[in-house]
Structures are given as C-alpha cells and as structure tokens.
Design a protein that fits this description.
Elements (H helix, E strand, L loop, with lengths): L10 H4 L7 E2 L14 H20 L21 E2 L29 H13 L6 E11 L2 H4 L10 H12 L7 E2 L7 H10 L1 E3 L1 E2 H14 L2 E6 L5 E3 H33 L3 H33 L2 H12 L4 H13 L1 E2 L5 E2 L3 E3 L20 H26 L9 H25 L2 H13 L9 H13 L15 H10 L4 H25 L3 H41 L2 H4 L10 E8 L20 H4 L8 H12 L3 E15 L14 E3 L15 H8 L5 E18 L5 H12 L22 E5 L3 E6 L3 E9 L6 E2 L8 E2 L1 H35 L9
Parallel strand pairs: 1-2, 3-4, 14-19
Antiparallel strand pairs: 3-18, 5-14, 6-20, 7-8, 9-10, 11-13, 12-13, 13-15, 15-17, 15-18, 16-17
Helix pairs in contact: 2-12, 2-18, 6-11, 7-24, 8-9, 12-14, 12-17, 12-18, 13-14, 13-17, 14-15, 14-16, 17-18, 21-23
C-alpha cells in the first residue's frame, strides 16, 4: 500500500546544505571589539556552543518507510559566517566572572515528533484532512475481521464490526483519549434534517412560465377524441412517431441480417448480399424516418426541448432528499436495535495486515531500523563538524589554524556540492537517499558491487518516492546509475565524507592547540566539549556498523536456510506497512506538546509515558521524573504503520457544499462557515458545530518496540515500574497494553525486559493509534427564522404561485370550453343552407 504524497518538514533532509559551513548563526552573540568585555565574550562562546550542541543532540527524529514514503531526519544546518574579528585581542582574565549562559532550550516534545513522523509517511495532500492520534491505541483481534474476500460475500458479522470501527466520531483535535460518543450516521442524518432548500424566486417564475408555455393549446392539433392538444402533448406524439419508425427500421435490419446469415455462409458473400439489400431498400425507410423528424422540427426541435427540460430539472435542494433516501435504503437494523451501514475498507484484505503468530522481535535491532539510526548519527556528526568551523571564527589569531580551516571548508563544500548537484537533478529526496546509502556503503557487506547495497538503494528509492530508472533534470544518467557512480567513484561521496571527518579532526586538534597557546580557556573548553560529542558519535557509529553487518548476515543465512520463523519476524517489513524509527532525548517526553489535546489525553510527563498512569502511582511517577531529567537518558521507538481507508456509498458529504442555497432550522451550524486551520482556534470553532468532521481512514501500528536507556545506568525503581506496569496490561506512550483477544489467556499485550542500562518494551498485537479526519465543507446556510431575501422565495410562496398558475389555466380552459359549447349549440339551431325554403 502506497501513500498519496509525502514531504519531510526537516531541515537537512529536504534542503541543500549551505555551501559555507564555517558560518555563524544570526542569533549567535557577536564578538565584542572592546578588550574589557573578555568575561562576557567567554560566556557567549560557551552559551553559543552549548546551545548548538543541545540542538544537535535533540534533533533525533527519524521516520523510515517501506513503500513510497520519506525518511525524515533532523539536523543542525551549517551557520552563517561571522564578521571578521582579526582586530580583536582576546585574553583570559585571571579571575573572570562570566555571565551564566542562558538555559538550554527544551527539546522538541516527543508527542510532536511522533505525530510528525506518522503524518509524514501516511499523510496526503488534502488540506481538509488532518491526523488525530488516539491514546491508548485500540487493540485489534484479526479473527474478528477475517473473511474470504476472494470468493464469498462479506459476512454480516464482519460488516457490523467494520462499521463500528469506522463509525466513531471525535472532538476535533490532534490527540485524544476517547471518542465523543457520537456516531457518523446519526450526525449525518441530523445534519441533513437540519437543512431545507432555498428556492430562487426568479428561477421559480421562469419555471412557471415554461410550464405555462408547454401546457398552452396548440392550434389545429387534436387527439382521437377531438380534444385539443397542448405543446408538450404535440411534441411527445410526434417524437413517439419518430422513434417508432426508427425502431421499425432497426427490427427490419435485424431480420434481414439473420436471413442473410442463414443463406450465405461466407463473410464476403454475406457482406455483398447485405450491401445489395441496403442500397435497394434502406432509402424508403430512411425517408419515412426523416419525414417524421421534419414533423417534429415544425413544432419544436429536440435540442430546444432538452434545454427547457434542463431548466425545469435544475435547482439545488433535491440532493437533500436523495441523500436521505440513500441513507434509508442502505441501513439495516441489528439485533440490539442500532442501524448498521455497509463500509468498504481499502484494501479489502486489510485484516491480513493484522496477522499474529509472529515472534516478538526487537524492531529497533532490524536492519532497516539500524540503517536509519546510522544515517541519523552520520547527519549529527556532520552538524557537529560544522560547529567547529563556527568556533574557529572566535579565534583572534588564525595563522596556525588557517590551513586546517581551509581544508575543512573545502571538504564541507565538496560534500555539499555533490549533494546539491544530485538534488538539483533528481529532487530533494535524492539527498536523503544518498545520505542513507553512503552511511552503509562504508561497510564491507555494502560494497559498491554487493547485492545488499542494490537492495538498500531500491529500498531508499521506494521510501522517497523516486523512480530509480528516471533521468533527472539536465542529467543523462538514471538515478540509480548516478547513485552508484557517487558511491564507487575514486572521488565519490564516501571519499568526500571521509575527507570531511578527517579534516574536522585536524581542525579540532589545531583549534585546541591554538586556543591553549593564545590562553583562551573558554574557547578551549568549548572545543573539547564539542570534540567529546564527536568522539561519542564515532563510537556509536562503529557499534551500529557492526550490528548492521551481523543483522544482514543473519538475515541472509536465515533466508538461505528457509527459516520460516526468521522470514516471519519483524526484521522483514510486512507488505503494506511503513516503518518509523524515532530516537530522542528522554527529556522530550516531559516537554509540553503544542498539539491540541482533548481533556482525556496527556501529551507529556509520566502520565504520557505510562499512557494514563494513575496519579496514585507515586513510585512510577518519581522514577520517571528522575530518569527523564538525566541528560544521558534517551528514548527510542520503532514501529510499522499502515493506513486503511473507508468508503461509504451511502454517505455524500458533497451535499454540504451546496449549503449557500439552503436554510437551516437550528441556530447551530453543521460546520464552521469558513475553512478553518487545524489548530486550537480552528478546532474550537469546529467543536461548536453539529457535524464538523468525520473519519476517512485509520492508522494501524504493529511490531512496536520502545526502548528507554541511559548511557550510565537505569534505576531499578524505574525498570521495576515499567515491568510491573506492562504485566498488568498498562500501556506506554500512544500504545495500549491490555489484551482484547479472545484467543489468548494473557491480560497484557506488552512485555517489558530490562538490563542495567535500558528497558525494552514489545507490543505483540496490532492496534489503531489514530484516524485521519476530514473537515465538512463550510456551512453557508441561512437561519430560516426571520429570513427575508427578495431574491429567494420560501416553499409557501412557491406553492401559491404554482397554484395560481394552474387556476388561471383552468379558468382559461373553462372559458374556452364554454365558447366551444356555445358554438356547438348555435350550430345545432342554425337552419341547413341546402334545405328548400317555404
């Protein structure tokens, strides 16, 4: 299953890196040109560096897809160049009193990261639709929805269960804890019943004039009983005669063909005989048909009559009654008294996406998830290397480090140029592909000619919706050939990446030595801190490379041996699913989300992590607070998601696009009278309406793994709280933990396993984690109470005018009948002119 269209909101993924990596951020503190502000400048260096490091450390939001989606990464772009400071003399004060740096900015809320990751890979281009996450997720039992969709008719039991899944309505928001108790069918009917047509006065008058014309008596045209015919009757009788002649000729042709087929068995003989008959006899039939048509034209042309019929049949409002009839015809009463309507799920075999019986695998250790994390770490390292160039601008005397600065700039420019050239020809998604592929290509298993690399390129092309065989703008090679050329060339992307890493290491050492010689301890501290971050990333990258090699070998060996369990594991992405991988600082879970939440949903804190933890669970709450407060704590999540759409033949939301020509009985609108934004203000307007939005698709998640870890150690209290919460069926983050399947004795859908540095939570059943809602078209109707519009008429005036027209016609008919009666009576008393006179 492919998604409609995807775009990434992140910086590094969709935009070309700046060519000048030694730039300085606009909001970074400028170096003072006065020698008496040494302490302040040192603080500025530390604050700017700490802020940059914090941004990089907390930009870890990655989403990876399996079909035609986009890999999303966050990174800190290279900064803009700082003004020259060569005339500034910086020295350390023996006892400096620097201003304390500003508090580090909080990381992006984890709820927002998750929302954007899901929406990036499943969302479409329809501005009227928005994603609403539900927490906890609703567990799905595959056996409830199974049926033979290839052979039989969907069982009523399955139809009812599917209807219940798609029928719930929710208060407009981006995250909710429950539905609002309303159902789509009931609110749809209420909305229809709240509207009535508004009749156009001028159109009503014109229609009456047309009816009057069509009912006008036509001179010298009578039926078999001597009654004079009106215009419509004359036209209909002539048209009937014309159609009858056409039908007569068609029957004659059919009989002739049958007779000739029975006489002539060769096609050529048959065709000759048929043509002889046609040229001899057809004209006589066609002349009669043409004569009948000429008789019609003398009265009224068929085209003109079609125009009149179109005018009489036009007007808004009939759609309301048609929608009500369709709704009534499709509804079936269930044994519990509710009305069930058929809903088609797309794809039809959507329940196969829920297949259970797979072993609980660590989705975070799959090849796909590890590859995504590796690409993320490479991006972070590039960002940190760019920060070294930023720090070099604070060095007054650059003589000893200028060569290292130039080498780093050249390496950065060369890497950026290669990416920019690729994106210019093949689109922004090409940059994400080369980033992911280049990260893996440095491994021996992913060499330029290895099948694993070809598979990875194909997978990344699918993720980013790129045709590998397409020729880019201004390019002569296909995309896949361009990627392979960048990978295998002697001066390719890998060499440029390596050159950047090496030049950054040389620059870091040169800056550290120079700052020490020039006695700028604040700059030296900043450089050492930055280099420490880079060294840590290098270790993580090497560890991930080893894990990826091991995972690839294990998968290859399992496939070669035909290991069914391995093939069914979550290491192999299920058909129709998209994979999402997110890694973030644990403190992001304590940052309040900007999303609009319902009163029953928590978007941050321990209630968020434990998915609605009771406030009485003080131990779990305090242990979570302690864990999330540590700068060494992280949260990782991997899951596979799919989008299942709803089709309702009985539901016609297009009716509400015509509300401008309707009255409404209630003071409340069906929906806002304008297209509102999907934010707090817009959702508030929608919540005050009768039928503001409705679900068009649901989001299913499976193979869910959550890992919380601390590089030093994780507290036993926190680990115990997680295990205990999981054992009793408690959920985590957006995912429900209680088991709803009748095919298992376990009360829990999750399993928590801990070690000294981490807690890993697996969810072994699929669940609905959200819906896509579509806003109902703006309600532009007018309240019927006190409505007064000279350009429109109500139904009372319409009926009155129509009755007056019929009364006038009846009066005229009676007068004409009286005249005919008098004429007939007078003719009976008149003497015969041919009789003899006395």
């Amino acid at each position: 299953m492919t998604k409609e269209s995807v775009s990434s909101p992140t910086d590094h993924a969709d935009t070309a890196p700046k060519a000048n990596a030694s730039s300085h951020p606009e909001n970074s503190p400028q170096i003072s040109t006065q020698t008496n502000s040494i302490g302040k400048t040192a603080a500025q260096i530390m604050a700017a560096t700490a802020s940059a490091l914090h941004q990089v450390a907390n930009s870890a939001s990655v989403s990876e897809s399996s079909s035609s989606s986009t890999t999303s990464t966050s990174a800190v772009a290279a900064n803009k160049s700082a003004p020259s400071s060569s005339n500034t003399m910086l020295r350390d004060d023996p006892s400096p009193s620097p201003t304390p740096p500003a508090p580090l900015p909080k990381p992006k809320p984890f709820a927002d990261q998750f929302y954007e990751a899901v929406n990036d890979v499943l969302g479409g281009t329809n501005d009227q639709q928005f994603l609403m996450l539900t927490m906890p997720g609703q567990i799905l039992d595959p056996f409830t929805y199974q049926w033979d969709y290839q052979q039989g008719v969907k069982p009523t039991r399955v139809s009812m269960q599917e209807f219940l899944l798609s029928e719930k309505l929710f208060d407009p928001c981006t995250m909710t804890g429950a539905d609002n108790g309303f159902t789509l069918a009931h609110q749809y009917r209420s909305a229809l019943d709240n509207l009535t047509p508004r009749l156009d006065a001028k159109l009503a008058e014109d229609k009456n004039e047309l009816r009057l014309f069509l009912l006008t008596k036509y001179p010298d045209r009578f039926d078999a009983y001597g009654n004079q015919l009106n215009v419509a009757q004359v036209y209909t009788s002539l048209m009937d005669a014309y159609v009858a002649e056409q039908h007569k000729f068609a029957i004659e042709l059919d009989n002739v063909k049958k007779n000739l087929h029975s006489t002539y068995h060769k096609d050529q003989d048959y065709e000759n005989a048929y043509l002889d008959w046609y040229f001899t006899n057809a004209d006589s039939y066609l002349n009669v048909i043409n004569a009948k048509y000429s008789a019609i034209l003398q009265v009224f042309t068929p085209n003109d009559m079609s125009i009149l019929e179109g005018i009489l049949d036009s007007g808004t409002g009939a759609e309301l009654e048609q929608a009500r009839r369709v709704l009534n015809n499709f509804g079936k009463t269930s044994p519990n008294g509710s009305t069930i309507y058929p809903v088609q799920f797309v794809p039809d075999n959507w329940f196969e996406l829920l297949t259970e019986g797979q072993k609980i695998e660590d989705a975070l250790e799959s090849v796909e998830a590890l590859s995504t994390r590796l690409s993320l770490l490479e991006t972070r390292r590039n960002s940190l290397n760019a920060q070294l160039l930023t720090l070099s601008s604070y060095l007054p005397d650059k003589t000893e480090v200028q060569t290292a600065i130039d080498n780093a700039k050249q390496a950065q420019t060369a890497l950026d140029s290669a990416r920019n050239d690729l994106m210019a020809g093949y689109g922004s998604g090409a940059g994400r592909v080369i980033d992911a592929v280049a990260s893996l290509a440095q491994s021996q298993l992913f060499g330029p000619k290895s099948p694993q690399l070809d598979e990875e390129i194909a997978r990344q092309c699918q993720y980013n919706n790129i045709d590998p065989n397409s020729t880019g703008t201004g390019k002569t090679t296909t995309f896949i050939d361009a990627i392979k050329a960048l990978i295998s060339a002697d001066d390719g992307i890998i060499q440029k990446q390596t050159a950047l890493v090496n030049s950054a290491a040389e620059l870091s050492k040169a800056l550290a030595d120079a700052s020490s010689k020039q006695n700028i301890s604040s700059l030296s501290t900043a450089i050492n801190s930055l280099q420490g971050q880079i060294d840590g990333l290098d270790q993580e990258i090497q560890t991930l490379r080893v894990k990826i090699d091991q995972a690839v070998l294990a998968r290859s060996q399992s496939i070669a041996s035909g290991d069914k369990d391995a093939l069914a594991s979550t290491d192999t992405l299920p058909d129709g699913f998209t994979q999402i991988v997110i890694e973030s600082a644990a403190s992001a879970m304590t940052t309040q989300s900007k999303m609009v939440n319902s009163a029953t949903a928590h978007s941050y804190g321990s209630h968020f992590f434990f998915c609605g933890l009771s406030s009485s669970s003080s131990q779990a709450d305090s242990s979570f607070q302690s864990f999330s407060a540590s700068t060494e704590s992280k949260v990782q999540i991997a899951l596979n998601v799919a989008k299942v759409s709803f089709i309702r033949e009985w539901f016609n939301p297009g009716v509400f696009a015509l509300t401008k020509d309707m009255y409404r009985f209630s003071k409340s609108r069906i929906s806002p009278n304008k297209v509102v934004t999907h934010d707090a203000a817009g959702f508030k307007e929608m919540q005050d309406c009768i039928f503001p939005c409705y679900p068009v698709a649901m989001v299913i998640a499976r193979d869910i793994t959550i890992r919380v870890l601390n590089s030093s150690s994780i507290s036993s209290d926190f680990a115990h709280s997680c295990e205990q919460h999981s054992a009793v069926g408690g959920g985590f983050l957006f995912f429900g933990g209680s088991s709803s399947s009748s095919h298992t004795d376990s009360q829990s859908n999750s399993k928590a396993v801990s070690d000294s540095k981490s807690v890993t939570i697996h969810f072994n059943a699929p669940q609905i984690i959200g819906y896509y809602l579509e806003q109902v078209r703006p309600d532009l109707s007018t309240p019927i109470t006190g409505a007064s519009d000279p350009e429109n008429t109500n139904i009372k005036d319409f009926v009155k005018a129509y009755k007056n027209m019929l009364a006038a016609m009846n009066d005229q008919h009676q007068i004409q009948q009286q005249v005919r009666d008098l004429q007939q009576k007078h003719s009976l008393h008149m003497p015969d002119a041919t009789s003899p006179t006395e």
